[in-house]
């Protein structure tokens, strides 16, 4: 998928690796009180149901093609299916257009969903603000979004990064801080509603999460990566279809890659060579679980998959990898461990300027709380780590430079706790390390 001058692939993997040696900086910031976050009550304003008969709710959008000229618009109606039409127009034209989509429903244990609408509007102009209306025939609601600029090698664009959000008071702070940033599209690295943490995977929590995130997701694309909390597989209550709520509610433009249900490795090996770095300068990968992780949480979960995939990231010059899963923040140096396999016994990552920077943003604020136990001493690959909630931003400046920052939730306002300049691996493969790695 291309957006502005950025390109990324989204895959959900469970991977991590820890090596102990002297590393970078562990934040000295100490929160006033370490405790599990508290869910917002179900009658919170953050979960408010819009007024009116069959009013659309849980409105969210995501990019609908590879280049940014389509948008998938999704919403839920409760009283009846209603119209699946979207009326839309640009801010530079008085001409209205109409697109027709599909409606889905599903059942999960003792829950029946509302009517879930997905409509892909196409042939949009680049860098243009569009208004759109849903709920035709009953209660209508109007929203807007701005398409990305045309794909170009030096086109600037700013992404936000959030993972493992949930629906607590801390989640609310994270989302508010992100809304006050300059992000134009959110890269979401998995674990959305945490409905499976409630009895019988309470799918009402999918509805509340959709209404909670609408204030951002209805106005800019959220690019989805599924996490382990989206699997929703539970034989004890007779639910044998994995990803059922997620796949019904959150559609992705997988058809644009002309791939369907091929195995992940086959898909990735076919997808990466398609990316023309002379046209699409930045290559970003989204996954759920980090490969390089110096917290005790999720230790060594996906090491066999790192062994399989890491060499591809180096070969195709991936610039940065964003992950979640670990409920904390961490940024790596450019290292690789692709020489290690189960038999040779060499398991120390080494400096590799051809490798991506790995960044864990699993700190959205969900009710499970922070991962606070870190390996000691800090591993050499780990440049910065902190057990706090927050969000990230990635500002792509041109083909050679991008600026990344991580913004901690502190006392009601966002604090830029970590930042660095990233040098593009294809166009500017200079050493952008922030610590010395022996």
UniProtKB/TrEMBL annotation:
Domain of life: Eukaryota
The protein's required cofactors: Fe cation; Zn(2+)
Protein name: Purple acid phosphatase
Keyword annotations of the record: Glycoprotein, Hydrolase, Iron, Metal-binding, Signal, Zinc
Record InterPro entries: Calcineurin-like_PHP, Metallo-depent_PP-like, MPP_PAP, PAPs-like, PAPs_C, PAPs_N, Purple_acid_Pase-like_N
Domain Purple acid phosphatase N-terminal: 56-147
Record-stated family: Belongs to the metallophosphoesterase superfamily. Purple acid phosphatase family.
EC nos: 3.1.3.2
Segments forming domain Purple acid phosphatase C-terminal: 355-412
Record has Chaperone as a keyword: no
Calcineurin-like phosphoesterase domain residues: 158-329
Gene Ontology molecular function, alphabetical: acid phosphatase activity; metal ion binding
